[in-house]
Amino acid sequence: MCYSTSAPTTKLFIDGKFVESKTSEWVDIHNPATNEVIGRVPKATQAEMLAAVDSCSRAYHSWSETSILTRQQIFLRYQQLIKENIVMLGKDLVSGLHLPETHACGITSLMLGETLPSITKDMDTHTYRLPLGVCAGITPFNFPAMIPLWMFPMGMVCGNTYLLKPSERVPGCAMLLAKMLQDAGAPDGTLNIIHGQHEAVNFICDHPAIKAISFVGSNQAGEYIYERGSKNGKRVQSNMGAKNHGVVMPDANKENTLNQLVGAAFGAAGQRCMALSTAILVGEARSWLPELLERAKALRVNAGDQPGADVGPLITPQAKARVESLIQSGVDEGATLLLDGRNVQVKGYENGNFVGPTILSKVTPQMKCYTEEIFGPVLLVLEADSLDEAVGIVNKNPYGNGTAIFTTNGATARKYTHEVEVGQVGVNVPIPVPLPMFSFTGSRGSFRGDTNFYGKQGIYFYTQIKTVTSQWKAEDATLKSPAVTMPT
Ligand code: NAD
Q1: ipTM of the complex
Q2: Are residues 391 and 416 in contact, defined by beta-carbon separation less than 8 angstroms?
Q3: Which ranges carry the Aldehyde dehydrogenase domain (predicted)?
């Protein structure tokens, strides 16, 4: 917490205006490469949060009645503005960010209802796909542009208004996105942004005007939000943590596999929910470990904005301490520390939250480093004698976000994709994040809810169905007496 007034403050976005919070409680924002305070984010007051949700409620009526073509046009302009400003948003932050956006622009087909004429004499049924009301999103620190863009464009293009609470660690990106949305023509009140931590989350879970909550982040927060929001009668979709396994078969293309594995384990310092943090070397592929090690050693640790940096810092000193203690727990429980990234020194950034690439081999499923998500540049290596054994290991892990198999054998790939109980499966694709015409399909401990993010599923999450049955009889078909039976 910070009480100084020198660092720049993040505004709230309420009813189309960027406003300074009147709160007395602020959270410091740090540069993870130096730990210098670079800004402050407010914990919005109850009055400010109420003003934001009231603004969403007021805007809902006219926004939901706005023609779908007008809403589509706004998001087409928005997509263009994001593309034009992609450098300012920061290429690393926004990789792939415009994609769900693209899908929002296909809304005129996605919102189509269904029709069945003549279900009985003179009677037709048709359905409308309609918005829910005010929807809310709560987002994590990683992918501070992409994940908000999984949420409010999809919700809004369907006719909902939207309340966003970005991660308090990286709130700036969401504010830029809000400004661009305003410039693209979204009316005041259709998107409001509040900041904060637990109180803001509880406010979203409890406020009766909010009909649906989208959450992406850790299991601790996501399970809590799923339960509290659901108890209050809201729809909740909750994308959470992961332990993604890469199964390496001995017939795989060795060069590609090792390069893909190292990139997917250590890229973004392992702070991706789809990071490939666990390798299972099957049979003869065990002998590839020394070459894997060489590739990991060659990665350069540096501040993310420095040329040639492969592995940047972790988000906070607490995250660094947690990752280091999980590495130690692996050592204490009998794993082999092949590469130790603790105590890495980065010249000019001695106070940053850096952990270098780390590899623990001889890991077993009982170890704490295996059962917990590490969310750092740490690759665990397990071994298996057969594909069946590898599938068994993956399916017993509580998480089900992503996985990949590396093989040149089609039958092996098919067996794996059919037997593995994980939402997103890659075949020689290390990070199989689906493009936006599909949906992000984490499963088991990585997801709560029944309707996934973006794609068709995203549209279903943010809409409800109204079914209209109409009968238009000709004059001479007038009923002669009361019809007491159910019409069929
Ligand atoms: P986090 O859970 O700490 O924070 C996410 C949001 O929840 C923030 O807005 C935060 O203010 C709020 N929050 C944090 N703790 C809370 C609590 N105890 N109660 C209520 N609200 C709380 O997550 P993070 O550290 O910002 O992000 C990393 C996590 O997100 C990792 O577990 C990662 O796997 C996961 N993630 C998942 C996906 C996915 O699609 N499955 C994508 C990205 C990140």
Answers
A1: 0.99
A2: yes
A3: 18-86, 107-468
Atom 9 of ligand 1 has which residue's CA nearest to it? Answer: 167
Q: Which atom of ligand 1 is nearest to the CA of 167?
A: 9
User: Is 197 near ligand 1, meaning CB less than 6 Å away?
Assistant: yes
Sign, Cα dihedral of 218, 447, 456, 231: negative
Q: How many CB atoms lie within 10 A of CB 204?
A: 26
**Does the active-site annotation cover 273?**
yes
3-state DSSP assignment of residue 191: strand
User: Which three-class secondary structure state does DSSP give residue 3?
Assistant: coil
Record the pTM. Answer: 0.95
- Angle at CA of residue 291, ends 288 and 293, nearest 5°: 110
Cβ of residue 446 lying under 6 Å from some atom of ligand 1: yes
pLDDT in tens, 279-301: 999 999 999 999 999 999 999 99
Pocket of ligand 1, candidates 198, 201, 218: which has the most ligand atoms within 8 Å of its Cβ, to mutate? 218
Rg (CA), the chain: 25
Residue of 356, 383, 380, 384 whose CA lies nearest to 368? 380
